[in-house]
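so my prof wants the structure for this chain in the tokens format not the other one, which i didnt know existed until like an hour ago. anyway here's the sequence
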Amino acid sequence: MSAKILSGTETAKTIREELKQEIAELKEKHNIVPGLVTILVGEDPASEVYVGAKERTSKNLGIYSERYDMPADTSEEDLLALVDKCNKNDKLNGILVQLPLPKHINEANILYAIDPDKDVDGFHPVNIGKMMLGEKCFLPCTPHGMLEILKRNNIETSGKEVVVLGRSNIVGKPIANLMLQKREGGNATVTLCHTRTKDTAFHTKRADILIAAVGVPKMVTADMVKDGVVILDVGVNRIGKTAEGKSILAGDVDFEAVKEKASAITPVPGGIGPMTITMLMMNTVQAAKAAAGLL
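here's what i got, hopefully its the right format
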């Protein structure tokens, strides 16, 4: 057997079309234009690519977009002042400060300064706490994207054994929490593995759904999974370059080998990645509706 390919590219495309229509209706019926600001400090190449993609996606969907590019030596005080200015700007429903920040800036201080109602990344402690309690909030974009891929491909989670590899605050911890909650897209039995797990393969072999988010290329091999497993591969690892100088990417899963045992699997690239920015746009639209009292 060969796995069904869970295309994040195609799923994201569908969701963006839905969002474009929703945004057009908000403008026509309520004179509301969702607004998103992106703040980039320094010149990290990967961050510049991400921010550029977010800005382009915003404009393509009809979201009002602002962008601030600040020098690497920007003080924490100046960045906090900019965040405060954006908090008070009614045209902006979402605020995204691109991470990582320069080492002299305390990331927590910046993230905590963002108005929780504009925290479309879902990183503020208020939103994290609400997520843990199962209350309505902005969900972190990558875990949210995973839930959408499962839902839109009719993959049942209730009663399933879910194994998560990786305990990051951005992916591992939140997706583990979301999958165990008493809700649609949850109700799973969740095991969270990490660098101190003694026998990772013991756990992965029991997984009905395996989520790999460790940042180690091709760590999950075919002998670590059972037949019929569903794989969500969050890893994006650069393992070399083509003759033309283009990066060769690999996930945390040995895709070619594992796809012969899995029932469904996300590719890298084209899997979870495209969903992340799309969920950011979805959160921004939700923030605009909430601010207008439409939710």
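also thought this was worth mentioning. The domain at 141-273 is CATH 3.40.50.720 (Rossmann fold).
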